[in-house]
Amino acid sequence: VRVGIIGGGQLGRMLGQAAGPLDIRCTFVEPAASPAAAPTGEILAGAYDDPAVLAELARRSDAVTYEFENVPVEAARWLAERIPVHPTPDALHVAQDRLHEKRFFRDNGVECAAFAPVASLAELRAAIEMLGLPAILKTRRMGYDGKGQLYLADPEQAEAAWSGLRGVPSILERVVPFDRELSVLVVRGRDGAVATWPVIENRHAGGILRWSIAPAPERPHGPPVAALQERADALGRRLVEALGYVGVLAVELFQVGDRLLANELAPRVHNSGHWSIEGSFTSQFENHLRAVLGLPLGRTDAPIPCASVNLLGRVPALPDLLAIDGARVHLYGKEPRPGRKLGHVTVLGRDLDEVAARLDAVRALTELQTG
Ligand code: AMP
């Protein structure tokens, strides 16, 4: 069986690693030199929308998927006329634009932050008036890891913020006073079967994911995690069914008391689910491939708690990482650059206390290294 993957970063690499034992052959389209996915499949070096490259990808594949969401929608549609493409290009269309995404949440009864589209300085001023502050101005397109976002605390900042984002189409979003950030990963098969992984707690800093823990721990005065899980499962299912989605969909959430507000969709495997490689019966990567290829989905439950920590900017000495009891190290083979995701470490434990202690041990090393 052969799968074509648009994008050749670390998510592609881990898809390729999951493909290995099933003898699924991967071909990646990637313009950048020495892509992280290279050791796990063949690389077609070229632009994501180069017709000759896409035609070759279709020739070499039984189905095509993506490992990042900014694949040109037209390229995905062109491929979809020739070969099964999952998730559907419509999902890309929704996820590529924060305004489409927010409207999609609202139209499907999924709560999200109050928002307003902003296409001019006058509209920004009107949106501030309507939503109140603090709020976040976000570009509609090409934002990730907190890029293309400005926090607004004072109406006086409107003009500087608008020129700071270079006047590109944006949305203003009210700041959500969340208790914590969660995510839910949903997978839907070609036959319509749906499964979700345990709901994940995520910690960001500077807009970048630092670590994730699954299942999300109970909080002393919070709602039971089982109730949050039920809600997350229901909204995840509603979204994949509304899109006729096939593959893994990640939904980033804010927890406010017992409410869940959707922040963002990722129509692909997701950084917050890396723990599933060791922590779940079937990883997000394997189930994504199974879904895209029309194979039966695997179990998504997690027998023991675990956590993943991102290695950003610099990789601590390998012997130090490997010396941590219960740690599984994943390096992506990328050149170090400040803030760049270079790898992750998953820690497993018999209970959450053990996971928390091991998580602290990894964080001590990474913080030592990144300053
Ligand atoms: P995003 O690129 O939309 O995923 O935003 C990156 C991070 O910024 C999120 O994970 C949150 O930590 C924070 N953030 C984004 N939007 C909001 C919001 N409306 N209220 C509070 N925090 C936010």
Please, could you describe this protein's structure?
- The chain has 371 residues and is of the alpha+beta class.
- It is 32% helix and 26% strand.
- The protein has helices spanning 10-19, 51-60, 73-80, 89-95, 98-107, 121-131, 158-164, 225-243, 276-279, 284-292, 318-322, 352-370; strands spanning 2-6, 25-29, 42-44, 63-66, 115-118, 135-139, 149-152, 170-174, 180-188, 194-196, 200-205, 208-214, 247-256, 259-266, 306-312, 327-331, 341-348.
- The termini are far apart.
- The mean pLDDT is 95.
- Bound molecules: adenosine monophosphate.
- Adenosine monophosphate is lined by residues 113, 136, 143, 146, 173, 175-176, 181, 204, 207, 252, 263-264.
SSE layout and pairing:
Blueprint: E1 2-6, H1 10-19, E2 25-29, E3 42-44, H2 51-60, E4 63-66, H3 73-80, H4 89-95, H5 98-107, E5 115-118, H6 121-131, E6 135-139, E7 149-152, H7 158-164, E8 170-174, E9 180-188, E10 194-196, E11 200-205, E12 208-214, H8 225-243, E13 247-256, E14 259-266, H9 276-279, H10 284-292, E15 306-312, H11 318-322, E16 327-331, E17 341-348, H12 352-370
Bound molecules: adenosine monophosphate.
